[in-house]
From TrEMBL:
CDD domains reported in the protein's UniProt record: NTF2_like
Domain of life according to the entry: Eukaryota
UniProt name for this protein: DUF4440 domain-containing protein
InterPro entries: DUF4440 (IPR027843), NTF2-like_dom_sf (IPR032710), Steroid_delta5-4_isomerase (IPR011944)
DUF4440 domain residues: 85-195
Amino acid sequence: MHARLEGDLTPAQKEKLDKNIAQETRTRFLQEDTTLIIENLDVYSWTAASTYQKPHQYVQQTAVVKLNRQHPDRVRTVSKDIEQISAVLHAYQDALNNASVEDAVKLYTQDGIVMPQHSPSFVGIANVRKAYESFFEIIKFDVKFDIQEVMPVSPEYAFARTNSAGTTVVKGRGKGNEANQELFVFKKVGGEWKIARYCFSTTNPPPK
């Protein structure tokens, strides 16, 4: 991408341009709580807390400024979407820790799907409810979700990646450490972001 955007500049010209663009990017964007989406080319983002996402920051910040100048119609700010999706993720964490089937299920779309590790998928809201009823019947959660990225990809869809860690008490097994990585697909329904697809897998090492 960098070569395609920069063209045939000399090293000196490129260095001067990159410094100017980097400074402009920091001044113009990094103080804002925002995410930029560049359609059909690349994605560049900050989290809701304006945490700078790495790697590739140098190449992508160059692309953002240039595309914003040349194709402003391709750039949309979606900071409000990120805030709303982050709030849903925090609500999901609370639903797990409170063992609340209702609070978990209400976060899903009607055609939502849960894809647990070592299990068939639970397809549709009725089966999503059954999934959480079975989870909470045998597992007590005490976990914290760490949001790694939230990435709206269109006005109606977004994905988020998280890590969670804490403890669980499993019926018949006792207390143990819990650690997972999760991927969420979100869909905007009636102006609200809902979980459309959810899958997770453990990051704990396999038992010896």
